[in-house]
Amino acid sequence: MKLYEKLADDMTEAVRRGVFAAGERILSVRQASQQHGVSIKTVLRAYALLESRGVVESRPQSGYFVRDTAARAARAAALDEPRLSGKPAAETAPVAAEVDVSRLVLSTLRSIRAHDAVPLGSPYPDPSLFPWRRINQYANAIARRSASWNLIDDLPPGNPELIRQIARRYAENGVPVDPGEIIITLGATEAINLSLQAVAKPGDTVAVESPTYYAMLHAIERLGMRAIEVATHPAHGIDIEALAQIIATQTIAACMVMPNFQNPLGFQMPDARKRQLVDLLAAHEIPVIENDVYQELYFGDARPSTLKNFDTKGLVLHCASFSKSLTASYRIGWAMPGRYRAQVEKLKFLNTLTTPSVPQVAVADYLKQGGYDRHLRHVRKVYRQQASIMTAMVRRFFPVGTRMSAPQGGYVLWVELPERVDSMRLYQAALARGITVGPGMMFSTRDDFRHFIRLNYSYPWTAQTEAALKTLGELVARMA
Fold first, then answer.
1. Tens digit of pLDDT for each residue in 264-306?
2. pTM: predicted TM-score of the whole model, two decimal places
3. How far is Cα of residue 55 from the mean position of the Cα atoms in its chain?
4. How far apart are the C-alpha atoms of 4 and 244, rounded to whole Å?
5. Is 65 exposed, middle or buried (0-12, 13-18, 19+ CB in 10 A)?
6. Could you tell me whether strands 205-210 and 254-257 are parallel, antiparallel, or unpaired per DSSP bridges?
């Protein structure tokens, strides 16, 4: 295959997977030349081939754009994607299990820090994209003008101006929010833990996605509860029909999900299925904890809806934070716990007493000055481009039999490797070469994801990153 044909095939696949949406401008000729390491002539031939296939169209003085027909084909094809979620539901009857993943996760995170490796396995966004200098300036100014704080000012629910700013952002995006429902927490992790503590007790069974973000499993493990995993589609989200069958046969105290840009699958659950999920749980009076930490990191034209949009009974406990989109160092999160607000506020007071005031006020001041949306537009553009690059490079360097998710937001890619590959062995072999990955076993209580890994594409794409991914592909090929 000629080089320009390979480039055209990669771009066609990216459109098919929904990386580029209808009407969206693809990389300029010069950008594509630089990122793929090919000549401008090669890119022009590839783009001409894409035009002939009807994938893109050129617009004078503007560049190349995805044609609507190509985008519709991409959406249709997405329905036929492999599950990327371990064994089919029919092969494994769901069973509630004790949770013990914290040691594996902790050792993995420690190795990333200790080895100063290429952070493909990092769970964190690239901090260089955050306006932390500006926020620190606000914090320093606040500290100078207020030498001491009254502890009463720190008590739950939190800083009134920050609460108002959060409520305003939801209102601007079509989510009706009562500011009185918002409780400021130490990141989304505390919001999730408090919410789970408010709705369930030790020994209870909690339904989670499979695979699921390990912070959800940590919360269940910490509180001595049991998890039951529900098959989850890489485009549609949790299998609502399977969940209904579980509810019919077992006692479920709560459900925990990430409907938007789920970690690790990256999907955006369709609105119709969000409504269906909320209605199912409401019919059985089962609370649902919604982890929406990636809500601002969408690749589409508008911020997606939340489960909270469809909540009429106050059973949705919505949790979010600024850690993934603005600053991780201040750990400012919040909960909107619906009918459980009083319990969550009490638990917040009993567990950590307060959330420090200076970070709250600093973030509120930053939101008031109006630069947040501009910052987010830049971050989304970077992540969307880097998701496309990493997807293309995995396809290029990894062996036949490798499958990938198609992230609609966020900054992680879920990769299914050939079945003979053990991701823990791969993790060790990669670490010895200065590369980290997120082994699939961290995302489940079961053994279904031994041949899966999670990759982080938030960091700048460099020659070192590309070399690391090539080395990783070679390791996978040997193990396969």
1. 999 999 999 999 999 999 999 999 999 999 999 999 988 999 9
2. 0.79
3. 28
4. 49
5. middle
6. parallel
